[in-house]
Amino acid sequence: MGPLSNKEHKLFKAYLLTALMLLVLGLSWGIIGSLQYISPGLLKQHFSFEKIRPLHVSSVLFWIIIASVGMVLTYLRSVTGKKLYSFKLAYIHLLVFIISTLGIYFAYISGNFGGREYWEFPPFFAVLIIAGWILFLINFISSLSSFRNQPVYIWMWMTGIIFFLFTYLESYLWVIPYFRKNLIGDILIQWKSNGSMVGSWNMLIYGSSIFLMEKISGNKETSQSSIAFILYFTGLFNLMFNWGHHIYTLPTAPYVQYISYAVSMTELFIIGRIIFNWKKTLDTAQKNLHILSYRLLLSADIWVFLTLALAILMSIPGINVYTHGTHITVAHTMGATIGINSFILLATITDNSEDNCSNLLHYHKIINKGIWISNISLLVFWCSLIGAGIKKAIWQTAEVQNSFSMMMQELKPYFIVFMAAGISLAIGLFCIIFPLMKMKISCIFKK
Amino acid sequence: MGFNEKNKILTAGILLLTFTVYSFHLYSSLPRQNLAKADDSNGKLVWQEKNCISCHQIYGLGGYLGPDLTNVYSTKGPEYIKAFLKKGTVVMPNFKLSDKEIQELLGYLKNIDQTGKADPRTFTISYNGTIKQ
After folding, report:
1. Which CATH superfamily is domain A274-447 in?
2. What's the pLDDT tens digit per position in A269-312?
3. Which of B26, B60, B130 comes nearest A188 by C-beta?
4. Which string of DSSP letters, residue by residue, matches A297-314?
5. What is the Cα–Cα distance from B60 to B56, expressed in whole angstroms?
6. What are phi and psi of A311, to 5 degrees?
7. Measured between CB atoms, does B52 come within 8 Å of chain A?
8. Where do the structural domains in chain A lie, given as residue ranges?
9. ipTM of this predicted complex?
10. Interval A164-183: pLDDT, tens
11. Is A268 part of the contact surface with chain B (CB cutoff 8 Å)?
12. How far apart are CA A110 and CA B51, in angstroms?
């Protein structure tokens, strides 16, 4: 992709700086939350856990969403070779998003909730998020000249945009009493939408990852190949039907469990493909390891393998019954949001800087250190959560149980490791984020 | 099978149609066995307004700082729950709930308790990896 024009650069800079700031905030709230795990009652008066958790979760989710949107808009220009349909729409979308985020932060800090897990803010803000997303959809469709013979990442971005809109609307069906008053049905719909929604932003992120990988390798045929589309349709199939693994223990119709179980097993094909391609990946790595964005993509590749392996195991109902409701679920989420989503997004932002700013070299060393620190810390963090999860699973299934508080006390050593690794992970990520932010602010354009 | 344009559109169309039918089937047939336990307490709204799910779980879904409350109504009883709601704990703040809010929350916890058991020990695992209660 050639250097961006000044106008384009300003727009993408605004998106990416907003996203990076949200990541910094998300990590900071996460550190406070982990301290509350080992020091119960910390900040209970003004920042108790029911405020800290949504502040952390929403910041990180918004980082993922706004960075994904920014990268799709950036790469779209390169695919079409034309300017965006409307810069104005893109700016309005960003503005709506920033206003919503500020409002949501204010609502959380003042203890005004009313929403549901991951979207705990009062439902009014959802209207703003949906309105902004519709502007993004219009901009995306109008920027494409044709839908024919498009590479797989255009299909993925399109799928991600449409399914986010659908699943986000679906997640608010609870405002209708017919859904809300049916206690089990309501939880079923909530996790149906949440499960598919994760798949929708994964489509945006994985699409950008394929685009970037193709750009680095220089092989333009990958994204048009049959295997790329088979993998895409496998992903889409899972996005649509594998959400049931969140609710195996919920008293619903048995077919919800059977469908999800069967569909989740098709992910074995994806993991098989990763193993099959391992040597090829290593060969490519030898050639491109000097590129920072490639290093981040390679990290994400390793985390795809680990997270997918864990996800497949958790999709087997007989295993899920033990892991459900334990920290193993958290380990899976952290592996996916940090190890996969955040590393891919940071890779795309780094790539964007490598292309357009001439001052990246100054920060090469520190970013490289950050990649190492964050990967090692994330592995320790992930293992401590799995350890805590196994211990809780043993407690959950024991014939004679200690009290909940005694069990939590026994988990404390795991929480201490989790907190220490969490802080170290944040430091590692800050080593990547701050140079990127500094560089974005003071970018000297490559001519 | 090569993925020409026609095959791509056909595959996407079949998937989309199946997804739409499945979604609307689920909307129209929300778990029937629980319709009798329809929540008329408004307690769920209080549950959401106080963001209880940040720390507690229902059917294993939610936060990890506090216990799962799916069956707390039948295992511990309303008076036990009331004591926590009125005073808070070392970790849980006193939310200064009104009597009405406490009654509504108790109503919600009573209703959710009647929908089933969340305890993993009540499940049996079949040879093919599926579970049933």
Report:
1. Cytochrome c oxidase-like, subunit I domain (1.20.210.10)
2. 787 777 777 667 767 777 776 788 889 988 998 999 999 999 99
3. B26
4. HHHHHHHHHHHHHHHHHH
5. 9
6. -65, -40
7. yes
8. 1-145, 274-447
9. 0.94
10. 999 999 999 999 988 988 89
11. no
12. 12
